[in-house]
Amino acid sequence: MYSFNYHNPSSQQEAEELLASTDSPSLLAGGQTLLPTLKHRLAEPSDLIDLKGISGLSGIHKENNSIVIGATTTHCAVSENELVARHIPALSKLASGIGDQQVRHRGTIGGSVANNDPAADYPAGCIGLGATIRTNRREIDADDFFVDLFETALEEDEMILAVSFPIPQQAAYIKFPNPASRYALVGVMLSKTGGDVRVAVTGAGSAGVFRDSHIEAILGKNFSAEAIDGSGIDEADISADIHASAEYRKHLIGEMARRAVEAASGG
Ligand SMILES: Cc1cc2nc3c(=O)[nH]c(=O)nc-3n(C[C@H](O)[C@H](O)[C@H](O)COP(=O)(O)OP(=O)(O)OC[C@H]3O[C@@H](n4cnc5c(N)ncnc54)[C@H](O)[C@@H]3O)c2cc1C
């Protein structure tokens, strides 16, 4: 680990001033990704700005027809929250399936979304539910936020404040987890609101999370598991590694989508 200055601001304004006044700052949420990165000397920030002391960044509330989750809210808090369970149970399930207990107690929604790991659950949750990422500068549609592997639309000194999820009529998240890390080999978040069907896939795309427009079109006409005839994505655009081939991942997308339709339909 290289040396760095540590800051523990108690307000958003203080954090923004530190972002603007330090050489190469890095925001610190639960440290679940950032601390191992620092320990392996893969990053050398001059200053770490810890967000945990900013009380306004944590918590969950309902705003009109949306559930709004503060950036430093932990996965555990989301999985146990009564509002989330009542209005978007698919999101409770997503959060409860992340990593292990320690990761869920430290890891945050803001850190996960900012990190945009290609096998992480929240990117699929955000796109599949049509979420909006709120930052200290603007609001960004999830469809525009996740750009490429570990790359987002966030600018260098931009900070996520919250993620807003519109409440869907039906939704489900189904993941085929890597048995060691629990990251998604393939995960599918599916939602239906009126005639609008969204199907977001994590774990499989060689450029990270994506929408499967083929499955969306099928389900838009006939919202049933039997209607799904597989994923529309080209195998060349699917990742392959020691855990699974592209062919197997493509098969899993169709299968997870079928199970998600059944779960969303109460099956
Ligand atoms: C063993 C293990 C298993 C895991 N399994 C899963 C899994 O199954 N599914 C899954 O989805 N994830 C998994 N994770 C990831 C975990 O869920 C964390 O959410 C993720 O590592 C981010 O961690 P964090 O919230 O502590 O953020 P940090 O590590 O503190 O930060 C991560 C990055 O986000 C930036 N950042 C943090 N907060 C903000 C903000 N508010 N605004 C802008 N940038 C910000 C930081 O600067 C840093 O670049 C796993 C992690 C581990 C260690």
Oligomer: single chain
- Strand sequence of the main sheet, in spatial order? 4-5-10-6-7
* Average pLDDT, all residues: 97
> How many β strands by DSSP?
14
Write the element-wise H/E pattern from the N-terminal end onward. Answer: EHEHEEEHHHHHHEEHEEEEEEEHH
Work out the count of structural domains: 3
CATH architecture of the largest domain: 2-Layer Sandwich
As a whole number of angstroms, the C-alpha radius of gyration is 18 Å
Largest β sheet strand count, sense and barrel closure: 5 strands, antiparallel
What is the rounded distance between the termini? Answer: 49 Å
Brief summary:
With 267 residues, the protein is α+β, with helices and mostly antiparallel strands. Helix content is 33%, strand content 25%.
Structure description:
- With 267 residues, this protein is α+β, with helices and mostly antiparallel strands.
- It folds into three domains: 5-50, Uridine Diphospho-n-acetylenolpyruvylglucosamine Reductase, domain 2 (2-Layer Sandwich); 55-166, Uridine Diphospho-n-acetylenolpyruvylglucosamine Reductase, domain 3 (2-Layer Sandwich); 170-264, Enolase-like, domain 1 (2-Layer Sandwich), CATH 3.30.390.
- It contains eleven helices and 14 strands.
- It has a five-stranded antiparallel β-sheet with strand order 4-5-10-6-7. Strands 11-12-13-14 form a four-stranded antiparallel β-sheet, with helices on both faces. It has a three-stranded parallel β-sheet with strand order 1-3-2, covered by helices on one side.
- The longest helix is centred in the C-terminal third of the chain and has 19 residues, at 246-264.
- It is globular, with a radius of gyration of 18 Å.
- Bound molecules: flavin-adenine dinucleotide (FAD).
- Residues 26-34, 51, 71, 75, 98-99, 103, 106-108, 110-112, 114-115, 120-122, 154, 159-160, 181-183 line the site of flavin-adenine dinucleotide (FAD).
- Flavin-adenine dinucleotide binds next to strand 2, helix 6, helix 7 and helix 8.
